[in-house]
Amino acid sequence: MTGLPICAETAGPLGSILVRPGETPQRLAAGVQLESGVDVSDREVLIWVRDGGRILVRDGREIIVDLQAGVGRNLQPFILGTGLAAACLQKGLLSLHASAVGRAGESIAFAGASGAGKSTMAAAMIARGYDHLSDDLSVLRLPGKGCAELYSSVPLVKLWPDSASAVGLDDRDAKSELSWHAKLMFDMPAAAASSSTRLAAIYFLEREDRADIVIERLVGHYALSALAREIYRRAWLMPMGRLEEVLQQVAQLSRRTPCFRVHRPHRFDQLHQVAQTIADHHASLTAVQGSAA
After folding, report:
1. Are residues 64 and 113 both part of a single domain?
2. Model-level pTM?
3. Domain range holding 123?
């Protein structure tokens, strides 16, 4: 469809997905109606976009966009966000509400509540030489043993104007996400769709009014609980029949991937200092893991 990035690779975790215009039902006959404006069944997800239309995701292979008549609204963020997340879940992939960056074959992910600064922190890390991997939705695979793998995703990042300014992005290079939304979308260099990186760490960002920066390790139940809260669209899992499977994946992830909570000043004037602290922490973590190998 017009406006969507084209990816020539099909060997990634999702393979090929057909995105096309078409008619969708008002409701899923066999679905569960959720308060978030989404109907979910074991095979389909129907997403209602306010003043925009509907998006139907089927079997992880097809996304049908039913644009409301007379509406020129940009549904791209919904197709590449919630729509893509539905396809990931239908494919059996673990999806986290997190943004990720990478360097030298490794990745780190930033998770946390809405407004914690995941996209902003990732953008600040990109300014320090990291590569963009994902924004808001991070897709993972857990091989039979060893480290989790994180796949590169859509080459876009969404930021509030003040966040964009803080990381040095010019809003003249962006496009509005939605006519009723103040976020801006910025294009990022695209990684190969089939590329994956070793997930070195997950950092959970806290919104706090403090002066110091503290990074603490989460282990056991604390790591598991923090990860479970960041399952993308977790309310969908029961009607999909995937709840038990995803909880098992999260338990494996908590054992295989170091998790850290970042306590830091939540201010733009301290953003780059926090980003440098995390970069240094990641470097030290990599050094320790390398010496232990």
Report:
1. no
2. 0.88
3. 94-292
